[in-house]
Amino acid sequence: MEKICLDFETTLDFLRGDAATIEKLKYYADREEICITSFTMLQLLETVSKQEVITAFVNSVTVLPFDRRAAHIAADILTNDLADHADIHKRTENVLTAAICIANEAFLYAKSPSKSPSKFEGIKGLKKV
Predict the structure, then answer these.
(1) Of 99, 111, 101, whose CA–CA distance to 73 is shortest?
(2) CA dist., res. 76 & res. 28, Å (int)
(3) Which residues contact 85 (CB under 8 A, 6 or more apart)?
(4) How many beta carbons lie within 10 A of that of residue 111, not counting itself?
(5) Whole-angstrom Cα distance, residue 88 to residue 53?
């Protein structure tokens, strides 16, 4: 069973009842382990006012930790993979999410804007769905 890790925007879409996101997650829920990162959990807790909704959601998915391995991977991404990007500090939250996914061998399910490159572009070793 593979891990499918939702980014913050995808998680919000799910919680808001976005039909396309719910349909895609139904497909994965029967076959894969649905996850979020501990960083996404933090973002949810500070953003969503209905804490009982967050608690119920978090209790129904796996929360992947930002641990030593993820920290090493994040440092490697920041110093090697993205060293040429001027906006590197703006991308740090994306790097943390990517590092946690890589450390836990999880595929990232991220909302991708249709006309702009993915905010996770250029991160080596990140598997996406």
Answers:
(1) 99
(2) 30
(3) 91, 122
(4) 16
(5) 33
| Sheet of 106-109, strand order | 62-64, 33-37, 3-6, 106-109
Q: How far apart are CA 20 and CA 117, in angstroms?
A: 20
Tell me the mean pLDDT per 10 residues along the chain, length 129: 95 96 92 95 93 95 97 90 60 88 96 69 90
Amino acid at 65: P
Bridge pairing between strands 62-64 and 3-6: unpaired
What is the pTM assigned to this prediction? 0.84
- For residues 88 and 12, what is the distance between their CA atoms, to the nearest angstrom? 24
Residues 124, 11, 35, 51: is their CA dihedral positive or negative?
positive
Domain architecture of the chain: domains with CATH: 3-109 (3.40.50.1010)
Supply 123's token pair.
């991160």
